[in-house]
Amino acid sequence: FVEHMFGESSIFAHSWAWTERFEQTVITSEGIIGDAGAFLARWGKAFGAGYQEMFSPDEALSDIVTMEDLGADDRICVRAYRRDDDSSSRFRFKLYHRAQAAPLADVLQILEHLGLKALVEEGFPVHPSSGEAIWVHEFLVDDPRGEDLVFSGVARAFEAAWTNRELDRRKVEA
To answer: Does residue 36 contact residue 27 with C-beta atoms inside 8 Å?
Structure first.
């Protein structure tokens, strides 16, 4: 019982500390987000414990900037980047998908078609106070030729392939 309670309070303490750090990140973001109060009202409680355990408040802010770029008609948005601790052949690929988790088989097929190999995937729903949930999927991707990779090119190629996949499916169903 004591271990169970300690575990719960440890999770609570971590979550509280992350939320405090997130608020500080927003307040000191130097105008990236506009009105900090309105921004925190929309996004302050959007991230669950799993997301908080995996990502820093700075990364959450980067994710929000990307999620806010999703247009009303957009189903997905993509961001590719390399962390300091990633090797030259590995990078991170984030897929933002409205309402529900993106079908893993579809994502893997497109990545493979682009010559990329997904090694790990983590997915988390994010729940802004208004609007529908947005799923954030992060893939650790391997590319033996990754040293010269242009991340914006990966994002554009994936988004184009995703759109073509949806158009092809509509043709089959028509």
So the answer is: yes
* pLDDT tens digits in sequence order for the chain, 174 residues long: 334 444 454 544 455 689 999 999 998 887 777 888 899 999 999 999 999 999 999 999 999 999 988 877 778 999 999 999 999 999 999 999 998 999 999 999 999 999 999 999 999 999 999 888 999 999 999 998 877 888 889 999 999 999 887 655 555 455
The per-residue DSSP string of 26-57 comes to HHTSTTSSS-HHHHHHHHTT-B-HHHHHHS-H
Kindly give the interhelix angle for 151-173 and 104-113, rounded to the nearest 10 degrees.
120
Q: Are 32 and 61 in contact (CB under 8 A)?
A: yes
DSSP letter at 77?
Answer: E
Strand partners of residue 91: 141
Q: CA 94, CA 139: separation in Å to the nearest integer?
A: 6
Do 111 and 118 touch, CB atoms closer than 8 A? yes
DSSP letter string, 148-161: G--HHHHHHHHHHH
At 56, list the tokens.
């820093």
Q: Which residue is it, tokens 């414990």?
A: 49
User: Whose CA is closest to 139, among 127, 157, 155, 128?
Assistant: 155
Task: Please tell me the distance from the alpha carbon of residue 157 to that of residue 161, in angstroms, as a whole number.
Answer: 6
Amino acid in position 26: V
